[in-house]
Amino acid sequence: MNKYSERRSRLRGLLKGEKGIAVFIGNVESAAQYRDNGYKWRQDSNWLYFFGIDEPRFAAIMDLESGVDTVYADDYDIDDIIWTGPMPTVASLAAGAGAQDSGTYSAFCTAVSAAVAAGRQVHWLPVSRWYNAVLLSSLLGVEPGQVFSQGKKGCPLASEPLVKAVIEMRLVKDDDEIALLDKAGELGYKMHTTARRGIRLGRIEQEIVGDMEGVTLAEGWGTSFATILTQHGEIFHCHSHDCPIEPGRLLLIDAGAESNDHYASDNTRTYPTGGRFTPRQRDIYQIVYECNELAFNMTRPGVAYRDCHLAAARHMLDRLGQLDLVKGDLDEMVADGIAGLFMPHGLGHNMGLDVHDMEDLGEDLVGYDPGQTRSSQLGLGSLRMARKLVPGNVITDEPGIYFIPALIEQWKRQGTDKGRVNYAKLEEYYDFGGIRLEDDVLVTASGARRLGSRRLPIAPDEVEQAMAEDN
Amino acid sequence: MNKYSERRSRLRGLLKGEKGIAVFIGNVESAAQYRDNGYKWRQDSNWLYFFGIDEPRFAAIMDLESGVDTVYADDYDIDDIIWTGPMPTVASLAAGAGAQDSGTYSAFCTAVSAAVAAGRQVHWLPVSRWYNAVLLSSLLGVEPGQVFSQGKKGCPLASEPLVKAVIEMRLVKDDDEIALLDKAGELGYKMHTTARRGIRLGRIEQEIVGDMEGVTLAEGWGTSFATILTQHGEIFHCHSHDCPIEPGRLLLIDAGAESNDHYASDNTRTYPTGGRFTPRQRDIYQIVYECNELAFNMTRPGVAYRDCHLAAARHMLDRLGQLDLVKGDLDEMVADGIAGLFMPHGLGHNMGLDVHDMEDLGEDLVGYDPGQTRSSQLGLGSLRMARKLVPGNVITDEPGIYFIPALIEQWKRQGTDKGRVNYAKLEEYYDFGGIRLEDDVLVTASGARRLGSRRLPIAPDEVEQAMAEDN
What we know:
2 copies of one chain form a homodimer.
Chain A lengths: L2 H12 L6 E5 L5 E4 L2 E2 L6 H6 L8 E5 L5 E4 L5 H7 L5 H7 L4 E3 L1 H13 L4 E2 L6 H11 L3 H4 L12 H12 L3 H23 L7 H15 E4 L4 E3 L19 E6 L1 E3 L7 E6 L6 H20 L6 H18 L7 H6 L27 H5 L26 E4 L2 E3 L2 H10 L8 H4 L7 E3 L2 E5 L4 E3 L9 H11 L1
Parallel strand pairs in A: 1-7, 5-6
Antiparallel strand pairs in A: 1-4, 2-3, 4-5, 8-11, 9-10, 10-12, 13-16, 14-15, 16-17
């Protein structure tokens, strides 16, 4: 039995008692400008996990009653062979994935429609590509928007048993996946090292992005998400890279590789543009570094990752208090979410075939245990992974401190901080930017380890030394 | 009046007499894995041409009767500002694009629905993103598939007057566009030079892809289409890059840059992997080179590009006859499409904001003059640009010769060649691969010139010399 059959067999076990069919729809090419000029081909992650066939326009049905798995796609004709080269037959690809049967793509549509018409239960996952949404919705007789994944809440119409079973499996990485994640981590290390070595005053940010993404493309699929490389670290997803590197700034680089096997890495480092931190930068950097270490040291089976977030938040507030930026009772400040002003995002997220693993299935179902409810506070409310950790979880550890003038002004106006924030002092930091430090972490039987064989320099002295050696 | 207002003013002129409204829908982010992990942002080209605003989720209505242009999008809230930074207001972006009015995205939907309900004519362009298809189809009350662009035929339901007017304008590049295309050509030159310098036996093809794409990302948006870099040039769109560079092969590199302004370049060169052509490779290469030169030398206003294709085909057959691969009357062989066995694609296509410019609007409308009908022959039938040339056209000149065993066997079996092909001799070429040589060409008032300031080495001696100097 190959790994795909094994995984489907486990899935059947988790769905024991469910009737009907489970459908899986692989991706089709996604147009960038027009149908035949597509974005780089990327298969659907759930499809990769359960079937592994890295080709467009495949679908499958697992019949939960008969026990038969059927893979559907169209064989190539002579035109396809001229334009894209020979492809193994669908039957042989299906057999390679351990499926008992195969059929054409239109047979897939017919089979799903027939199941719907016969009143059989049809289990499906939330959809993230609009082509698939149009296809699936037409088969089910609903609107496309009703099958499309809506982020945090996933898709209310999708099959809860199937979604939960897939999450249960993909949350815990098997040995094969851990090896592939380590490999992606190696590539991420190389990518970030190239970037760090390219930091020179006057260079345009985009040039560094090109260098680092070239490394990822040379050995992997590409980036696992849109690269963030900015002297405005306080803007979380700043994708504009047109500024020259200026002296005295902080350059935040949040970037990851996706390996040819489609596993992700995701690291963030923040560098002083001239190679040495100013005292003020070093103070804040040191706090973020301590929060990263603190969270990692807490990470082990049985600990809720939400508690790691809160411990990091507490430490952050404690240390910001020493800088006279906040004051008040630490526990109360944590409870009131004061850390959210400085870190309006969560400590981390699951990672695997997706950089935010399974976000299409619904963040709350993926990241929260039954009984855990998501906070509405800024920061903690954005936490994507709150669950009690188990061995095999792969998570990011990414605290950050940012000074976001628009947000600070809003809190000041609205009194959100209930008197804890020293706004006068904080104004001095309006030109600071932001710092984030992120590692990828595997929960082991006894604790945790970071992915890849080497950790990117992170302690302030290490960073300065590495940058000195780079030049 | 800025260039966008000017273009829309010209468009209004071309649509004189038409009633109702013309709608333009910019792109939204396109999911790679899930909604919030998108492919690299790429705006719709028609939107860029007429409005220029390079941000997601914009739309516009040109009222053809009142003369008012309205741009619609949603202003950022505090969450957007935290996550993606500040953005100018929609009103100011609309004003910058020369629009008289602005509104929210939902106001756009309301306005289109109201126009439909009032029985006003709604002019729209074929859609290439499924999200936009779902949106537009719901406003028009049709199925998503009915508004989606189907390639060659475009979209039969779309507004023919609007489609034709847009094509008329975009087919002829203005001075601003020509400067941007020259700039993209420079970047393409750099990209291909990096690739050529990276050719060394034993390297994995993907490593060269990464190097060259890194160059494009460092200075431009990225690649203008999925890079083709393969020792199997006979497979036109071979996107697998996992082979090591082997001695004695030909490496075909078809790749283009998209500049930060979103104009494309598209060049192909074919290199002997060891730096020197074998005599057999040089024979075939020389023919392709001659066809490229011949077509370029014919390119001038008043000549139909279809005739350049046919002249290249004729010369190719003449020279293949000298190699004893075909025999027969040249004119008859051209008429019978025998060249299609060796070059089953067209000589070239329009290029601009899209590498296959405006392919979403329908290849036949874009590339064929009224009265020109598209051939059904292999090769000529794939010609994307047949029109009589006018100054300002930008086209590719990309003849090729390929030896495709599956295709040759099919012709042999079916007698497609009517006795012209020497199959016994052709069998010797089954392991040859393919050669394509492609330049980007601007039609000028008196003739043509290639885009960019430098031409990549192309004559066989030039190529060998450049490769010798690379090492």
